[in-house]
């Protein structure tokens, strides 16, 4: 009898991964490839929707072939979140490139809406701040700027959605999304668990082009055999960071995970009551199953691993691995602070005009100091979000579960423990986004009964404990000064 298995697809910003997990959450096979990004203008970030689709199909086929003889029960899909695609209903042809969550082209539109008094209504209805990060203004931009788009939408000839909706349309023939992804669009009303009609009218987005919303753990349809080699039910779909929260077994209120990828994404399980934030965090859906819904507080940092990539791109290091050796080669950062606001500041500041700032340079500054300041800047940025979470919940955070590429950097992880003052637990399975999609899909397919079963499958690789350091608070105060110098820079005439 063949062993049961789940296929998990993690379609991320820069890479698509497909992994096959068995009933013990062991990875039997995996495949991955990079997905290109293009930058047509400063602040614009796009992807070819067909690149996303083809990468999903190619990696799924490769992983399934490598897994050998297994009884494949279902597939789980994790998506980028706020990235959007608009396409023709009949042909499936994209009307325009996918506009990435990183894209800032709608800054001026958001400013206009803010001047018109729309921000309060948007926050009241969706729980989100008015910001180009979310999907809504990207869809509006396509409808306003691609010739003929509004007319096509009015005639019912266009569909729009986040990348999960695009992939499901292509793979399943269904126009659907889940509640976690809908909650990232700035169009979803979490109290109604549906699109908000007044926000749609305000932003001039026809409801008819949007996908049907359903629980994260539910049957979305069946992937056609022509794509993966045989038909496969899709029983889970959710945003990648929410998938990582589930994969990290953060099932109790106040559990926190941090995923370090292009950015850093910090989610706190807020339980089954919709949270509010007064400190720059985002209330969001963590996952849903049937009538049950779990919420989270989300604090995203736009640039984390991307700051390390930037060091490589400008020739300061040859590889991300080199940052460890360089950071350890100096006793401190030599008074240098690097605020990695290369794409503005997200939580808890929400300043799209902030820019990356390196301050404290002297003639004695070396590239080792700059590298160390970069890693410490990622840790300081994480503490900013964690402090906002403590202020919003009124409860201390005792530990973090961490995953993602940068979690392999022992200097950064120890700096994170020291700067935040909490224990840092590294997951044994680094692909926790894929694991979370697999866990939820497996529950949907009956492989596991509930979260109590999947919690027992979570394993730890390493733990970093904070070391007593009396200078941390003074350094953190100086960090705030550096952040203030970074804020609003692009708005200065």
Whole-angstrom Rg? 22 Å
Q: What is the averaged pLDDT score?
A: 94
Distance between the termini: 70 Å
Strand arrangement, major sheet? 17-18-16-15-21-22-23
Number of strands: 23
> Number of helical runs?
17
Which structural class is indicated by helix and strand composition?
alpha+beta
Largest sheet: 7 strands, mixed
Low-confidence stretches are: none
Outline: globular
Q: What is the percent of helical residues?
A: 25-40%
Taken as a percent bin, the fraction of beta residues is 25-35%
Concise structural overview:
With 493 residues, the chain is α+β, with helices and mostly antiparallel strands.
List key phrases describing it.
single chain; 493 residues; alpha+beta; 7-stranded mixed beta sheet; 6-stranded mixed beta sheet; 17 helices; 23 strands; 35% helix; globular
Helix/strand layout:
Layout (H helix, E strand, L loop, with lengths): L3 E8 L3 E8 L4 E8 L11 E2 L1 H19 L3 E9 L4 E5 L9 E2 L7 H9 L2 H9 L9 H10 L3 H6 L3 E5 H10 L3 E3 H4 L5 E2 L4 E2 L1 H7 L8 E3 L2 E7 L1 H4 L3 E8 H8 L8 E5 L3 E8 L10 E8 L2 E10 L3 H9 L8 H7 L8 E3 L17 E3 L7 H27 L5 E6 L5 H11 L2 E5 L4 H14 L5 H5 L4 E5 L7 H15 L7
Parallel strand pairs: 1-5, 5-14, 9-12, 15-21, 21-22
Antiparallel strand pairs: 1-2, 2-3, 4-7, 6-8, 10-11, 13-14, 15-16, 16-18, 17-18, 19-20, 22-23
Helix pairs in contact: 10-15, 11-13, 12-13, 13-14
Explain this structure.
With 493 residues, the chain is α+β, with helices and mostly antiparallel strands. The protein is built from 17 helices and 23 strands. Strand 17 (282-289) and strand 18 (292-301) form a beta hairpin. The longest helix is centred in the C-terminal third of the chain and has 27 residues, at 367-393. The protein is globular. The model has no long low-confidence stretch (mean pLDDT 94).
């Amino acid at each position: 009898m063949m062993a049961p298995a789940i296929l998990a697809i993690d379609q991320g910003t820069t890479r698509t991964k497909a992994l096959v997990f068995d009933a013990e959450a062991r990875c039997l096979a995996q495949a991955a490839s990079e997905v290109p990004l293009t930058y047509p203008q400063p602040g614009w970030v796009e992807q070819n929707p067909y690149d996303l689709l083809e990468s999903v199909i190619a990696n799924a086929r490769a992983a399934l072939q490598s897994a050998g003889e297994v009884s494949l029960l279902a597939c789980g899909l994790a998506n980028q979140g706020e990235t959007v695609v608009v396409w023709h209903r009949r042909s499936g042809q994209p009307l325009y490139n996918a506009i990435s969550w990183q894209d800032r082209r709608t800054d001026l539109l958001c400013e206009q809406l803010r001047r018109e008094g729309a921000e309060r209504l948007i926050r009241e209805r969706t729980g989100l701040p008015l910001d180009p990060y979310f999907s809504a203004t990207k869809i509006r931009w396509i409808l306003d700027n691609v010739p003929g788009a509004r007319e096509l939408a009015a005639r019912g000839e266009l569909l729009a959605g986040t990348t999960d909706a695009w992939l499901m349309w292509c793979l399943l023939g269904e126009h659907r999304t889940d509640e976690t992804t809908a909650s990232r669009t700035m169009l979803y009303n979490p109290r109604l668990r549906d699109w908000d009609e007044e926000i749609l009218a305000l932003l001039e987005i026809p409801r008819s082009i949007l996908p049907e919303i359903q629980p994260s753990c539910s049957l979305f349809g069946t992937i056609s055999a022509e794509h993966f080699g045989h038909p496969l039910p899709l029983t889970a779909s959710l945003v990648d960071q929410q998938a990582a929260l589930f994969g990290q077994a953060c099932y109790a209120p106040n559990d926190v995970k941090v995923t370090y990828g292009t950015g850093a994404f910090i989610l706190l399980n807020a339980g089954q009551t919709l949270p509010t934030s007064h400190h720059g965090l985002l209330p969001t859906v963590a996952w849903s199953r049937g009538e049950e819904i779990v919420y989270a507080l989300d604090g995203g940092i736009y640039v984390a691993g991307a700051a390390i990539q930037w060091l490589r791109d400008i020739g300061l290091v040859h590889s991300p691995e080199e940052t460890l050796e360089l950071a350890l080669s100096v006793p401190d950062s030599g008074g240098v602070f690097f605020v990695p606001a290369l794409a503005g500041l997200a939580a808890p500041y929400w300043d799209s005009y902030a820019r990356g700032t390196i301050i404290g340079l002297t003639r004695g500054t070396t590239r080792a100091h700059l590298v160390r300041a970069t890693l410490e800047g990622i840790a300081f940025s994480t503490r900013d979000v964690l402090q906002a979470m403590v202020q919003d919940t009124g409860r201390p955070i005792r530990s973090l579960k961490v995953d993602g590429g940068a979690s392999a950097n022992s200097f950064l992880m120890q700096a994170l423990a020291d700067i935040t003052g909490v224990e840092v637990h590294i997951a044994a399975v680094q692909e926790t986004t894929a694991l979370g999609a697999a866990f939820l899909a497996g529950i949907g397919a009956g492989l596991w009964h509930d979260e109590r079963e999947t919690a027992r499958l979570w394993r730890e690789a390493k733990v970093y404990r904070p070391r007593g350091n009396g200078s941390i608070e003074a350094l953190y105060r100086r960090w705030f000064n550096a952040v203030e110098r970074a804020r609003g820079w692009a708005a200065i005439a």
